[in-house]
Amino acid sequence: MIQIAQVLKSNGADGEVLMGFRNIDPDDINLQEPVFIYFDGLPVPFFIEKLTPRGVSKALCRLTGIHSLADAEELAGAAVYADASTLDREEEEEGLDLDALVGWTVRRADLQQVVGTVSGYEDIPGNPCLYIEPGSVLVPLHEDLVVDVDEDSRTLTLIIPEGLL
């Protein structure tokens, strides 16, 4: 499963929610397939009964079983997942899967030294960043800063701007 959206907030008193979509157009979602929200570590399926796009990356959604403001507010901030095979996308996006980089070694290109291990990421639209341990340093992951991606050794070599480490 891949994260496709995040519930941004409740909308109205009848259980509708505003979702912000990540790397997918709301129109590419197959409404015949469920989306999933994790509760207590388990994925709970919901069907999208109604989807009304709001701009390019947001939509008002009505989910099955969510019929009140209290129910909708409980979902605020929750990540929304879908089975990648059920999305109506014509082609997969190019680029690195940030989830797959967790655990990779990060090398600094200019000094050819290991600076740490990827412990997580922030998928900020247009500016994804990696958390590097030790120290939970947040480093931007931009294509102009990537020197080498070695999948065999799980090593990422980056140009790291002065002062970030």
What this model shows, in words?
- With 165 residues, the chain is mainly beta.
- The protein has 2 domains: 2-86, RimM (Elongation Factor Tu (Ef-tu), domain 3, Beta Barrel), CATH 2.40.30.60; 98-158, SH3 type barrels.
- The chain is built from 2 helices and 13 strands; from the N terminus they run ββββββαβαββββββ.
- The protein has a 6-stranded mixed β-sheet with strand order 11-10-9-8-13-12.
- The longest helix has 7 residues, at 69-75.
Question: Per CATH, what is the topology of the largest domain?
Answer: Elongation Factor Tu (Ef-tu), domain 3
Q: What sort of overall outline do the alpha carbons produce when their principal axes are compared?
A: elongated
Second-tier CATH architecture of the largest domain: Beta Barrel
CATH classification class of the largest domain: Mainly Beta
The CATH superfamily of the largest domain is known as RimM
Mean pLDDT: 84
Fraction of residues in helix: under 10%
Quickly count the helices: 2
How are helices and strands ordered from N to C?
EEEEEEHEHEEEEEE
Instruction: Give the number of DSSP strands.
Output: 13
Strands ordered across the widest β-sheet: 11-10-9-8-13-12
- Rg (C-alpha, Å): 19 Å
The end-to-end span amounts to 33 Å
Number of domains: 2
